[in-house]
Amino acid sequence: MSGINSGSVRFLLADDHSLIRQGIVFLLEDMDWESEIFHASNLQQLMISIQEQPVDIAIIDAHFPDGNSITVVPEIKKMSPKTKILIFTGIEESAHSLKFLNAGADGFLSKLSEEEEIAEAIKKMYSHGSYISEVTQALLRNSISNPTLINPLLSLTERELQIAEMYAEGLGNLEIANRLDIKQNTVSTLKKRIFDKLKIENIVELIEVMKNHY
């Protein structure tokens, strides 16, 4: 692969698995770019790195032991608007890429991708400022007519959203029923409907969806 001639590119590799970061280092070395590489193994280190030195391209996992990186993407963009963010993760692209792009990420790439695609994504992040795979391009086209692909909470009715918020606050069926003056079995029915619409299976996942989109 040909190198670039516009000076050193500053990369931040943020992943809690050192083998993943090292794999990207080997790939960058094969690309023959003049680069400076910083590492972060958690969200705290990630934010400190962004604060301490300029970063051209940040390659970031979606999840860390100390949280979900979607919560810090807007903060990174606020602190360092020129930093391009590529989410590099094992989570399903078709289910998650749009919400990361909506939060401010400039690209989304699966860790299951072939080495050639990973290299191509990094090159496009540098040359064009973004990388949108064919999968995510299709999702973006579909989202024009189906905005729930970006924000699944839009699929809920006003009452369902109200109850989802109460579950996220830690209330149980009885407390919700008493607060809304409805029957417990009605709450249970609405809970199932909420879970079906959001394609989730438990309260932990509901809290995550609420945190990311509400």
UniProtKB/TrEMBL annotation:
Domain HTH luxR-type: 149-214
One example GO MF annotation: DNA binding
Swiss-Prot/TrEMBL keywords: DNA-binding, Phosphoprotein, Transcription, Transcription regulation
GO biological process, alphabetically ordered: phosphorelay signal transduction system; regulation of DNA-templated transcription
Taxonomy, superkingdom: Bacteria
Span of domain Response regulatory: 10-126
The keyword Secreted is annotated on this UniProt entry: no
Gene3D superfamilies: 3.40.50.2300, Winged helix-like DNA-binding domain superfamily/Winged helix DNA-binding domain (1.10.10.10)
Modification sites for 4-aspartylphosphate: 61
PANTHER family associated with the record: NITRATE_NITRITE RESPONSE REGULATOR PROTEIN NARP (PTHR43214:SF41), TWO-COMPONENT RESPONSE REGULATOR (PTHR43214)
Protein name: Two component transcriptional regulator, LuxR family
Organism in which the protein naturally occurs: Chryseobacterium gambrini
Organism lineage: Bacteria, Pseudomonadati, Bacteroidota, Flavobacteriia, Flavobacteriales
